[in-house]
From TrEMBL:
<protein>
    <recommendedName>
        <fullName>DUF1894 domain-containing protein</fullName>
    </recommendedName>
</protein>
<dbReference type="Pfam" id="PF08979">
    <property type="entry name" value="DUF1894"/>
</dbReference>
<dbReference type="InterPro" id="IPR012031">
    <property type="entry name" value="MTH0776-like"/>
</dbReference>
Length: 90
């Protein structure tokens, strides 16, 4: 199982709802909806479907929920492998 702390991430928003995350990510031209349980960076993404993720250059932006801490919008740079995998499922 992966750990968010092992990634070079940036927190864009914190303590947000899944709806707020979806609305924020809708502004990006390249976005995808994934099902709860989808794995990115060896992390299971949990939340209320549809879970939206966005591509911004070589960065991947997605909501990440830490139990007891809430949902955060995370940007991970240099995510080319995960972006390619995400594009491949579309």
């Amino acid at each position: 199982m992966g750990c968010l702390e092992s990634l070079p991430y940036e927190v864009l928003m914190s303590k947000i709802s899944f709806k707020e995350a979806r609305e924020f990510l809708s502004r990006y031209p390249e976005k995808y909806d994934v099902a709860p349980g989808y794995r990115m960076f060896d992390l299971n993404i949990i939340g209320v479907p549809p879970i939206r993720v966005a591509v911004d250059g070589d960065s991947l932006i997605f909501p990440y929920t830490k139990p007891c801490h809430g949902t955060f919008l995370i940007r991970v740079p240099n995510a080319t492998d995960e972006i390619a995998r995400l594009r491949g499922r579309a």
